[in-house]
Each structure stands twice: as structure tokens, then as C-alpha cells.
Amino acid sequence: MANVRYPLLAREGWVHVVVVLTAAWVVTHFFGWLAAIPAWLIAILVVQFFRDPPRRLPNVVGAVICPADGLVIAVGEGEDPYLKRPAKRLCIFMSPFNVHSNRMPLAGQVKDAWYHPGQFVNAALEKASHANERNAVWLRTDEGHDVVVVQVAGFVARRILCYIKPGDRVELGQRYGFIRFGSRVEVYLPLNVDFRVSLGDKVTGGSDIIAHFKQ
To answer: Please, what is the Cα angle at 123 between 190 and 199, to 5 degrees?
Structure first.
């Protein structure tokens, strides 16, 4: 198994962390520890939000790994709105307490990407899939399977970050994006997969297997 390493603190949060820690120190210095307790609590919350621990990739042929930490809120068959095909669909809700970096579920080439501006309703609601701001990436695997991974903004989230573009080669478990402050990630897979997770499961991005291609 490969150990996927990134900075323990996501680079997207470095500025935020410096600001809140500095503010907490200033309040402590001028007003004392008691008055600074709220500032330190906020600092702790910001640091935990931007944590980005290493993950160990499963070495299983045909496995689809989890693209994000969170709670499985939808799993089953549905229409892929990007490739216009029947597909297996999985949705993961990421609360503000989850790790928010996003990882590729499979290796392959990025064929296309679509960004859609939209609303910021609660990401746990089904309508968030088509109403909210979102960014979709179409990946074709080395075996020729078409997979779409979608980052969806939530009620608190106000920025979707995606670092890959059409033509890029991506590897299994590669960190490719980040969503700030609560969101969801959706995966559209071919019909020839079996899910390895169920509704209500808590999953871990970069290490849990969410599906497996049928042999």
C-alpha cells in the first residue's frame, strides 16, 4: 500500500491559521487567558478544519477509493447528468468537522471538466446536486471506464478549489481539490460496479474502498 503524504495542514488554510492564531495571541497578551478563550476555540476549529493527514491507499485491483471524508447520504443507480448515461451514484456529505481535501478515486486521464455557478443551500439536501455551485471532472481510467467526480458547495462553503484540467494524468488517491467549510462530493460510476458502502456509512477519503469493478 502506498502512503499518500501531504502537509499535515492543508496549504489552503495556512493564511487562515496564521490569522486566527495571531488574533488569539494578541487577545491573550492584552486581555489575559480568560478573555482569550473564545479566540483560542475559534483557532482550534480553524486548525482542525484545515488538517490534511496522510492516507494509505488500498492495494486492491479494480477498487474505487473514497474521494472525500464524510457521511454517505445517497447510494444507488441514477442518471449521470454530465455524460448523459445511466450510472451508479454515490454522494458523501462533508461537515465542517471533516477533512476537506478531495482525492481521485481512480487513476487515468482527465477528459473534461465543467464548472456551474449556483446557490449555497445545505449540501445534505438532494437539491444541492443540481442547484448549488459545483465543479465536475470527467476521468477515463486506464481500463477505459468513465467516471465523473463532482465537488458541490454547501451552505457555509463559498469556494471550490480544483487543481486539475482536461488532458492531465491523475493517479489513484491524488489530492486534486479542496472545498472550504462544509460541502459534498458525488461520484458517478459505470453500471458494472458493486458498492462496498451503504447509506449512513462514515467513510474516509483516500483509504476506504467505496466500490469495486465486477470481474
So the answer is: 50
The band of 51, judged by pLDDT with boundaries at 50, 70 and 90, is confident
Q: In this structure, how many other beta carbons lie within 10 angstroms of the beta carbon of residue 169? A: 11
What does the chain come to in residues? 215
Task: Quote the CA–CA distance of 114 and 95 in Å, as a whole number.
Answer: 24
Q: Three cell numbers at 184?
A: 459534498
Helix, strand or coil for residue 105? coil
Beta bridge partners of 139: 110, 147
C-alpha 155/C-alpha 107 separation (Å) is 31
Query: pLDDT tens for residues 86-118?
Result: 999 999 998 888 888 899 999 999 999 999 886
Identify the residue whose cell numbers are 477498487: 63
Q: Is 101 a catalytic residue?
A: no
- Out of 95, 183, 198, 207, pick the active-site residue: 183
Q: Distances in Å between the alpha carbon of 39 and those of 13, 51, 95? A: 17, 19, 22
| 3-state DSSP helix/strand/coil % of the chain, to nearest 5 | 20, 40, 40
69 burial via Cβ count (<10 Å: 0-12, 13-18, 19+): buried
